[in-house]
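Backbones bend. Our protein:
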Amino acid sequence: MFYYLSGILDTAFLNTAVVDCGGVGYMLTVSSKTVAELYSQIGKSVRLYTHLSVREDAMELYGFGDEEELSVFKLLITVSGIGPKAAIAILSALTVNELNLAVVKNDQRRISAAQGVGAKTAARVILELKDKLPKLLGQPIAEEDDQETVPAQVRSTEKEDAAAALNVLGYSRSEINAAFRKIDIEGCDMQEIVKRALSVLAR
């Protein structure tokens, strides 16, 4: 409905900004990063890119300082269990580049540092965005040869990575091993192994 709002910034505090557009004050929920950028712009003309969230009981407008942050927000809310508020919390805890680095390095702890985001949700973010986020940002997906800076504990085989992701999702090691015995994982990457194992575990 709205792509962006241009107007005079009336106020910016916590995760909220109010923009006066022709005498109408639009209240937007924004990330901490965007609020920090807006503090010095109060009383000045600003442009915020927007996303309108519509629920049965409410309509809420979310604002972003640039189109990249908006695009990452829209990608985050496609992840199972991630709503607009959780996406804003993640973008408040990490910059876009920090989030991308956490995803490609399987850094669940860094993502779960966001308010209201637990380990299982962080694991889903990594699982579902490992390929999508780098592509969105125009950055190469991490190759094996690029792992020098990755801590030793995250260097593992695709099967071990898949087992770790499934464990974070609440499955025991015995359940995971039983599922692995029922699927063909030869030549599969971590995401494909997880998907195949979940098809067995969900039965």
Observations:
- Confidence is low (pLDDT under 50) at residues 143-156.
- The chain is about 45% helix and 20% strand.
